[in-house]
Amino acid sequence: MSSHRQRLGALRTELARENLNGFFVPLTDEHMSEYIGAYACRLEWLTGFGGSAGSAVVLEGQAAIFVDGRYTIQVTEQVDPELWSYKSLPADDPVAWAIAHLKAGDRIGYDPWLASLGWEKQARRRLDAQKIELVALPTNPIDAIWSDRPLPSQAPAFIQPENLAGKTSEQKRHEVAEWLNAKQADTLVLTALDSIAWLFNMRGSDVSCTPVALAFALTHKDGSADLFIDPAKTDDALKEAMGNAVHFHDQADFPDALKALSGKSVIVDPERTVAAITALLQDGGARLSYDRDPVVLMKAIKNRAEIEGHRQAQLWDAVALAKFFYWLSQTAPKRQLTELSAAEKLLSFRQESGHLVDLSFETISAAAAHSAIPHYRVTEASNLPLKKDEIYLVDSGGQYPNGTTDVTRTVIIGTPTEEMKQRFTLVLKGHIALATAVFPAGTSGGQLDSFARQYLWRAGVDYAHGTGHGVGAFLSVHEGPQRISPSGGAFSGGNEVLRAGMILSNEPGYYKSGAFGIRIENLLLVKPVEVAEAEKPCLAFETLNFTPIDRNLINSSLLSESEISWLNQYHQEVCQKLLPFLSMQEAEWLKAATAPLRG
């Protein structure tokens, strides 16, 4: 089945065989992951859509794909409009769309290993009200027709050394045990791959760009744990490093282990646990309660070793970026580069450090109008040249053994227009406002989000994404629970209180559809700060990235003296940190790129 038309037709045949009138197709895996292994890329296989967020509904005579504002252009480039209707989240809702196109007595299926408990309960309630049956399927019908579906990765798992992790797995598991005892519970079900990786000081390469190993875990109130993982991924060294209190099981044994928790008080995270797991626990007679996975907050607050590891990783990354932007400045005006060739060259500079394990996400290498697509992904079909007097935006990051990086820079190839400079400078002002924020303990990311938007708002413009996301320690580049984003609306999630040790991105932007886009992103560390006469403890940010900000795109007349001072000081630090690692030619370029800006 080479065509998406054939695949959609085959799925409808399979649904008819199961006496179903429709099927929900989410973009996730059995761990509710954002980034998933090739074996779980069912939505992409079925539709051609390669974004990192979305879902679809397939009915007998029609089908729809649902994406948010980050992917409205990408979905039209990748998904056939003759087969699929394009729907925009959150305005369009997959369940509501299904209800509008089904009738009483119809049956629509879902995979309970790919649906959160919250989604399943809400969808069932709404469908029941219309006398439409929601059917939990024992196997995914897409798997039945995907004949060359990749197998889950069998890459070996490995230990994250204690000098980089900062704590032993035993120490971490005892913290979870204390939490369980405080909750008067026996067992915590862990499904999130980055939580499992952090808790057991274990990493892997089962998911592109995220160093995790496919596994489930049960942790208990005595500090012991059961780890469910493919035996092919483990060895004696891994087991010895875990210690005797961690018991290894085949991942295939996980469902039976859940059913065996009869009479136990078991906590599951409703946001991170699929409906199939809670059903197995209920069928087995466990006493269920719901709470957020405690590891989510534990790993978000970085310890000293993780913070120092981040700083080293950011330095390696910054050297690679400086070499790349020097190369770009010399090469782009002379010969035709493309989005793909630029991304490949940036990867080669990161690899030169000898420390790069993987990218932290697929590089967003975006020229001209593509830079106006916040989550653009370049392909052979979409590959644009980098042309004179056009903007080039590159959002990229690396996975290093001691830290995860994420940085965006926007540069001009040639001469910018006044509009480009004005918009770039407004984005820069917002970036500086957030980077220099001082705030009392107890402040949430949502309360700080407008710091970065205020200057764009005054000009009557905005950007349709959050301002900042959490970042892991050699883990997920998008880490919760911390966010800097509006507390309501399409990109909500900013209600989490910021705490010292958290790392977040600072990435305001501006996007003019069909013309150009701008984003300036650094990573920020939340740290305590002394404030004279403060009535409560205060926090501030330390910038972790050190990559030049393109002076050619700045209208300095729009900057205040304090903003110019911040930029000059930042560029001075960039020079001090990077010059020892650059060639003579690269160093001369860097000195010019970071020369003091005058008002």
From TrEMBL:
Keyword terms, alphabetized: Aminopeptidase, Hydrolase, Metal-binding, Protease
EC number: 3.4.11.9
Residue span(s) of domain Creatinase N-terminal: 7-130
InterPro entries in alphabetical order: Creatin/AminoP/Spt16_N, Creatinase/aminopeptidase-like, Creatinase_N, Pept_M24, Pept_M24B, Peptidase_M24_C, X-Pro_aminopeptidase_P
Record has Hydrolase as a keyword: yes
SUPFAM superfamilies for the chain: Creatinase/aminopeptidase, Creatinase/prolidase N-terminal domain
Occurrences of domain Peptidase M24 C-terminal (ranges): 538-597
Entries under Pfam families matching the protein: Creatinase_N (PF01321), Creatinase_N_2 (PF16189), Peptidase_M24 (PF00557), Peptidase_M24_C (PF16188)
A Gene Ontology cellular-component term: cytoplasm
GO MF term list: metal ion binding; metalloaminopeptidase activity
Presence of keyword Protease: yes
CDD domains: APP
Domain called Peptidase M24: residue spans: 309-527
Recorded family membership: Belongs to the peptidase M24B family.
Protein name per UniProt: Xaa-Pro aminopeptidase
Organism of origin: Zymomonas mobilis subsp. mobilis (strain ATCC 10988 / DSM 424 / LMG 404 / NCIMB 8938 / NRRL B-806 / ZM1)
